[in-house]
Design brief:
The complex is a heterodimer of chains A (263) and B (428). By secondary structure, chain A is an alpha/beta fold. Chain A is built from 9 helices and 10 strands. Chain A has helices at residues 61-67, 90-99, 115-125, 131-144, 160-172, 190-205, 217-223, 241-246, 251-261; strands at residues 21-32, 35-46, 50-54, 76-81, 84-85, 100-103, 178-182, 209-213, 226-231, 234-239. A 6-stranded mixed beta sheet of chain A has the order 6-7-8-3-9-10, sandwiched between helices. In chain A, a hairpin with a 2-residue loop joins strand 9 (226-231) and strand 10 (234-239). Chain B is mainly alpha-helical. The two termini of chain B are 47 Å apart. Classes of the chains: A alpha/beta (263), B mainly alpha (428). The structure holds adenosine-5'-triphosphate and magnesium ion (MG). Residues 32, 35, 37, 55, 57-63 of chain A line the site of adenosine-5'-triphosphate (ATP).
């Protein structure tokens, strides 16, 4: 949970936020059985925004982010992703899922497929991209995450950091307009964290809309343009990173920041 | 402080060969057979046991008589020496392999079917082979049916056309929705079967190229192989469907799968076979003569499909939830996620279990001898042992039957081990 310094200069000038709305959540509630996990969530994300979601364990961060591509179902309220409302209609769900990329804490690569096959599978089957084009695109993104030479290996032969970068490349091959990250670095060793964060920063510099659950406060400070703090299923505070870290308003936030930053 | 503790090696020690007591067969024998007193006793007892068995079996096999025409003649030739009477195998060879009713001048037909089976099975078993070979695999069941049963070629042709029509209907309609494709395919296939079946003249089989052979004339090891191959290849897809059905969110499908699996698993196979031979006739329309072979195939397939379904369910349960989520998050729909992500992994985990069921199924095909079908065991127990010439030749016949089954089952087991190695990509 250290404030891992990001060494390179980050070009924030390119990270333009447009007025166009990418995600609109209003009055959203979710229950697991009788347990009220998400309470009255209202959140608007514009295209090009980089949002970091922080909060103590069990506060509902993963649940929130998983509701955005219907990995979890919400019971009340409205979620509009990229102009399409998330309902129980499977057509809408599949459409949204193919527009929204997701990276998981444990990578979830397909172990029976090579790295290249992992990256070309969804474009070929979901987008009906010709195989040749899918392979070219996969190699392009694998180069971008700096592992083109591993293309014919299997996930089990790669280090954790490499696997997570493949997972990012795999999502990018679907040309998503929004990327969701659920603690992408918390299963990694420090030196691997850096390589994954570097990849994510590059993505941010290209103007990708990103929602990222992470404990990497250095990343939040330098890349995010909004930090959201959640506790007990509610959004407790949200602000620009400078304000959020230097001048937290709520007691809960202050306590959380002192625990996570001050050792 | 203490200078003598500090040590730096400046030269590397050159490698030297190990002492002779540490390598070679002597060392292996000492380590593995005579390492302690109990081990030594066990070794000696085992050697003695092997020796006694060999002292009985080797002369018995070596003195074997191959060319007499009855057991009494064997005894005369042997004149009191121990020796096997293998003549029963050479004299009844055809009956053991084909049963006693299959027309002798048609033996080439099942033989051809067996050889072609190798080509049909190859692309399924060894997936590095060109995918085009699967076309032959698809045609094979109809070809083999025609070869073995003979009669008019129109029958298998109409059956094949029905499947082709179903396939086309599915491809056309499944763009709209899976259900439309599924039911469209079923309707198209049945339409072809009913219309085509009506068009085949009653007398078509009478002057056909291959003389028609009724199912009750099949027998011998051929019948075991036919039942084994048919039932294994049918019960695998049915088992997969049942396993997925049991996991389904739809209560009706789930309920049907659970009831089917639990019921079939809870009933002895022999009961199902009796149902097939006696009672199933009541369920079909009275004037339809549903073939006994078909009825037995249905029962054995249902039985092993229930077991395979449970094995595959174990494989599905062993997959981490993240695999489903990753497939979902990439936008794959349910059939794609199952076919491309979930089943390849679940089936790989299930290989040992599936092979276990397949081997068991193959051996269980001998149970049909109980409902008076003359498979290998039925032939031995019935026509051969009951004959005056060979009454009393148990060891030779049953030993040979065991040997035939062993060869096939050992082959299946070796194949599955190769498959597991070939599919090992997780590098754990
Ligand atoms: N499938 C489920 N069924 C019931 N309760 C669940 C389920 N998944 C999560 N929960 C509960 O919902 C709450 C929120 O879980 P969530 O995974 O969203 O937390 P989180 O903020 O991501 O925590 P962490 O930082 O540990 O990942 C937790 O209290 C958890 O116990
Ligand atoms: Mg979480």
């Amino acid at each position: 949970m250290s404030e891992l310094a990001i060494e390179r200069e980050i070009d924030r000038s390119k990270m333009q936020v447009s007025d166009e709305v990418a995600i609109q959540i209003s009055g959203m509630n979710k229950w697991y059985g009788t347990f009220h996990v998400l309470r009255d969530i209202d959140l608007t994300v514009n295209r090009g925004e980089r949002i970091v979601i922080a909060g103590p364990s069990g506060s509902g961060k993963s649940t929130l982010i998983r509701c955005l591509n219907a990995l979890e179902e919400h019971q009340q309220g409205q979620i509009i992703v990229d102009g399409t409302e998330l309902t129980s209609d499977l057509k809408n769900i599949d459409k949204i899922r193919s527009e929204v990329g997701m990276c998981f804490q444990h990578f979830n690569l397909f172990p029976h497929l090579t790295i290249l096959e992992n990256c070309t599978l969804a474009p070929i089957w979901v987008r009906k991209t010709p195989k040749k084009e899918a392979i070219e695109r996969a190699m392009h993104f694998l180069e971008k995450v700096k592992i083109p030479d591993q293309a014919n290996k299997y996930p089990g032969q790669l280090s954790g950091g490499q696997q997570q970068r493949v997972a990012i490349a795999r999502s990018l091959c679907m040309k998503p307009r929004i990327m969701l990250f659920d603690e992408p670095t918390s299963a990694l060793d420090p030196e691997m964290i850096k390589e994954v964060l570097d990849t994510m920063i590059e993505l941010a510099e290209e103007g990708m809309t990103m929602l990222c659950v992470t404990h990497e406060m250095g990343f939040a400070r330098q890349v995010a343009n909004r930090v959201i703090f959640m506790d007990a299923g509610q959004i407790v505070e949200q602000n620009e990173p400078e304000e959020f870290f230097n001048n937290p308003k709520s007691e809960r936030t202050k306590l959380f920041l002192s625990q996570i930053l001050g050792h | 402080m203490s200078t003598e503790l500090a040590f730096v090696r400046t030269e590397q020690i050159p490698p030297s060969p190990p002492p002779s007591s540490a390598i070679g067969p002597k060392k292996w024998i000492k380590d593995n057979l005579f390492s302690s007193i109990p081990n030594t006793i066990l070794t000696i007892v085992t050697i003695w046991l092997i020796y006694t068995v060999l002292m009985v079996v080797v002369p018995w096999m070596a003195n074997g008589v191959w060319n007499t025409s009855s057991l009494t003649e064997c005894r005369e030739v042997l004149q009191g020496k121990t020796g096997a009477c293998f003549s029963v195998l050479s004299e009844r060879w055809n009956q053991i392999l084909y049963g006693f009713k299959y027309p002798v001048d048609s033996y080439w037909r099942p033989n051809t079917a067996l050889i072609l089976l190798a080509f049909a099975a190859a692309p399924v078993m060894f997936f590095d082979l060109p995918r085009k070979m699967l076309i032959f695999t698809a045609i094979y069941p109809f070809l083999a049916y025609w070869l073995i049963w003979g009669g008019t070629i129109l029958g298998p042709l109409v059956a094949l056309l029905g499947f082709v029509a179903g396939g086309f209907a599915f491809m056309r309609l499944s763009f709209k929705s899976f259900a439309a494709g599924f039911f469209g395919a079923i309707i198209a296939a049945f339409a072809v079967w009913i219309i085509g079946g009506g068009l085949i003249p009653e007398t078509a089989s009478e002057n056909s190229l291959l003389a028609a052979v009724p199912s009750r004339d099949l027998g011998g090891f051929m019948l075991n192989l036919m039942l084994g191959v048919t039932c294994v290849s049918l019960s695998l897809p049915l088992g997969i469907a049942l396993a997925l059905g049991r996991q389904s969110n739809m209560p009706l499908i789930k309920g049907i799968s659970v009831v089917f699996i639990e019921f079939v698993r809870g009933v002895p196979l022999i009961t199902l076979l009796f149902v097939a031979s006696v009672m199933l006739a009541y369920f079909f329309p009275p004037d339809s003569t549903v073939d006994l072979f078909l009825r037995v195939v249905i029962m054995i397939t249902m039985f092993s499909a229930a077991y395979i379904a449970e094995v595959i369910r174990g494989g599905l349960a062993a997959l981490p939830k993240g695999q489903y989520e990753a497939a979902d998050s990439l936008g794959l729909d349910y059939p794609q996620a199952m076919r491309l992500i979930i089943l390849p992994q679940a089936l790989k985990i299930s290989i040992p279990g599936i092979v276990n069921v397949a081997v068991g199924l193959f051996k269980d095909t001998t149970l049909v001898s109980v409902i008076s079908m003359f498979d290998l065991v039925g032939m031995i127990r019935g026509p051969i042992l009951a004959s005056t010439e060979w009454n009393g030749v148990y060891w030779e016949l049953l030993g040979f039957a065991a040997f035939l089954f062993f060869v096939v089952c050992y082959g299946i087991s070796q194949y599955s081990q190769w498959l597991e190695r070939r599919l090992a990509t997780d590098h754990r």
